[in-house]
Predict the structure.
Amino acid sequence: MDTSTLDVDAVAAWLSENLDGFEGPMTAEKFAGGQSNPTFLLKTPAREYVLRRKPPGVLLKSAHAVDREFRVQQALAGSDVPVARMHVLCEDDDVIGSMFYVMDRVQGRNFDDPRIPELDTADRSAVFNQMNKVLAAIHSVDISAVGLSDYGPEGNYFERQVGRWTKQYRASETETVPAMDQLIDWLNANMPEDDGKRTLVHGDFRLDNLLFDANGTDCVAVLDWELSTIGHPYADLAAVIMQWQMPPGGAGRGLQGVDRAALGIPSDRDFVGAYCHRMGLPGIEKFGFYLAFCFFRMAAIIQGVKKRGLEGNASDPERAAKMGTYVPLFANAGLEASKHG
């Protein structure tokens, strides 16, 4: 049991005062993996909770926004988007050294590998259909009705995001990556005009950020909302396609070279087509820009992980160092995507 980044006694004392029905004694166990906000399973005699906190150490401005995670999931309670029930947000850094929140533990299964070898073809197809359905549900949320209309600024989402992640990348840059510099220049030179689409976006939508029913294929929770905002829905859709273009296996977690038809996994075209059908869209022009943007953003995120690893602030330092080697891979993939409409 790893509790090295959590003062269990301090959390238990605070929850005793601030969470209705909480009764100790409490134990905590850190979930393996994950590079951003350390996540812990809290166990009491009566029930289980999940705690997410900002990591210790000096952090980039606007990163690790657990308060935003809490707010968006609380707003989505009862919507068509499955989320865990939120309980309490602690904004007092003095309790454990950083902000944290506590939510219900949702029982379910998580698929790290999009080939999903543990399922048969029919169930595999059903999981990807659910993934598509949930993505469309996120983008169909009435942001005014759920109180999220101010959750992100007005204006050109991609212009804002390229600017933000360029700053984040420069702040965590450890060496020059020529492909990343070229990709940043290309994105700025090919920025699409604002088309007025403004929806809730998850910001890191991929299969391994979804929980599915332990005995079925229904999605029971969407996880990791740290990068969510009000923005352009095509960024989420392109992020799915970006992930699938990575090599299969533990590092890439992609579908490159996989016979998808034999496994019941939709092609990129079919997944985008199903999404467009659900959203009432005739199609998406210049998809290459959105794909290139997603590769750029992921490269910037990975560079941040690498920098935290070098400074000793990563949730999993060994994995952080390994992930850091992929920055040029993502940057070059972004350049390749930029060549295709």
User: Anything to note?
Assistant: The beta strands are 27-30, 39-43, 48-53, 86-90, 100-104, 199-201, 210-212, 219-222, 229-231.
